[in-house]
Design brief:
globular, two-stranded antiparallel ribbon, mainly alpha, 4 helices, about 50% helix
């Protein structure tokens, strides 16, 4: 099963941007995100993300 942009955004609710990939993963785990959301975040490029839109763009082409 894959995750959706909506599920990822729910897991990242109230996160402070900019944030690096590891910060996204830690925030999602702390907020009990599903394993699918965690897997998606772990597959992201290792860079700094500046907004929810920046994270959502990673769904394009997947």
């Amino acid at each position: 099963m894959q995750t959706s942009p909506v599920e990822v955004q729910k897991a990242l609710k109230d996160i402070d941007y900019p944030v690096k990939k590891q910060g996204l993963i830690e925030h999602a785990k702390k907020h009990k995100a599903s394993s699918e959301v965690i897997e998606f975040l772990e597959d992201l490029p290792d860079k700094e993300y500046t907004s929810t839109i920046d994270v959502s763009k990673e769904f394009e082409g997947k």
